[in-house]
Design brief:
CATH architecture of the largest domain: 2-Layer Sandwich
Low-confidence stretches: none
CATH topology of the largest domain: Nucleotidyltransferase, domain 5
Radius of gyration: 20 Å
Structural class: alpha/beta
Number of domains: 2
CATH class of the largest domain: Alpha Beta
Largest sheet: 5 strands, mixed
Order of helices and strands: EEEHEHEHEEEHHHEHEH
Oligomer: single chain
Bound molecules: zinc ion
Strand content: 15-25%
Helix content: 25-40%
Mean pLDDT: 96
Distance between the termini: 16 Å
Number of helices: 8
Shape: globular
């Protein structure tokens, strides 16, 4: 048996998946091992290796059967996976600065390790889930603490010159067109005002949407909570039909609609895909959210009105799955 491993390295956990050479997944659920990344690269790489051994054991295989590895991490990192010299939120130990994660893991595991950032890996999984190996073009937006995502053109991830391709969260959108945000300048952590992440992320709910919409609903129960705790309750309340929380999610959906409209005009894609914690909810809520995204899009030309808008499945394993698919593609092109 020959296997490809997908390894999703986050700040606290490593998540694994394994696929065979036909792209079939041997691990369907979450398979996690502690990352211990705060203790630096040496400890963390050992954790990655140990966790991989446990994962292959789980499917009744051995490490020898793993012929290639796909790795994904949160950025910022170069297109080849060298972590930013200026550090990153998830890799705080000083030895991580400028660390060549795939290069070091390749040497350690003795097999090729390819790299994607977590947004691009998730986008590739969302794409593969719909189109398989057939060449197609899709745009994914993944709504979490921030907004990740990616652009897949003819089946290939657009990583760009420096690894910043598909940074959908920092694309500017006309936020003043969104109901409730007409007179607001939403700030993003990246320094931009009015990009997609500044409206469509958990951070945006906390920093902008909740303070803005609470003014419209002054007696709302969330007004009594600390804004950090209140922000985390918005999705659940929106799902249960709370009017203010629906307004907040409608604003996020309309932001996605404006963003996707730009992508439709740039790429004329085969699908638009939404994923992330924000929409890991009931099918009813997902359906409402997709309809609101459509409602937020300007009227489409007749030929493009039927571009499918889809939900990305398996949110918490999307990164590992996408990384494995990229490794499989590279392994197939080598053989
Ligand atoms: Zn930004």
């Amino acid at each position: 048996m020959q296997l490809i491993a997908g390894i999703d390295l986050g700040g606290t956990a490593v998540n694994y998946t394994l696929i065979d050479l036909d792209g079939r997944f041997l691990i369907e659920d979450l398979c996690e091992h502690p990352a211990r990344s705060v203790e630096g690269p040496d400890v963390c790489l050992q954790q990655i290796e140990d966790g991989l051994a446990i994962a292959v054991q789980r499917v009744g295989a051995t490490l020898e059967s793993v012929i290639a590895v796909g790795l994904d991490t949160p950025g910022p990192a170069s297109a080849t996976g060298v972590l930013s010299a200026r550090g990153s939120t998830n890799f705080v130990h000083p030895q991580w600065a400028g660390f060549d994660l795939p290069g070091n893991l390749t040497r350690r595991l003795g097999r090729p390790v390819c790299y994607l950032n977590d947004g691009n890996a998730g986008a590739l999984w969302g794409h593969f889930n719909i189109f398989g190996h057939t060449p197609a073009t899709s745009i994914s937006a993944i709504v979490g603490t921030g907004l990740g995502g990616g652009v897949i053109v003819d089946g290939r991830v657009v990583t760009g010159r420096g690894g910043f391709g598909g940074e959908c969260g920092h694309v500017l959108i006309p936020t003043q067109r969104i109901a409730g945000l007409e007179h607001v300048d939403p700030q993003c952590n990246c320094g931009r005002i009015g990009d997609l992440e500044s409206v469509c992320s958990l951070t945006a709910i906390r920093n902008t949407l909740l303070p803005t919409f609470l003014k419209k609903y002054p007696g709302h129960a969330l007004a009594t909570l600390d804004v950090k705790d209140a922000a985390k309750k918005v999705r659940g309340l929106a799902e249960r039909g709370d009017a203010m929380c629906r307004d907040i999610f409608r604003a996020q959906a309309h932001a996605l609609g404006l963003f996707f409209d730009q992508m439709v005009n740039t790429f004329d894609p085969d699908a638009l895909i939404v994923g992330g914690g924000a929409i890991e909810a009931s099918a009813d809520f997902q359906g409402w959210f997709l309809a609101e995204i459509r409602a937020g899009m300007p009227v489409q030309r007749e030929e493009q009105a039927d571009i499918p808008l889809r939900i990305m499945p398996n949110g918490d394993t999307a990164g590992a799955r996408g990384a494995a698919i990229e490794a499989l593609r590279l392994a197939s092109s080598r053989s």
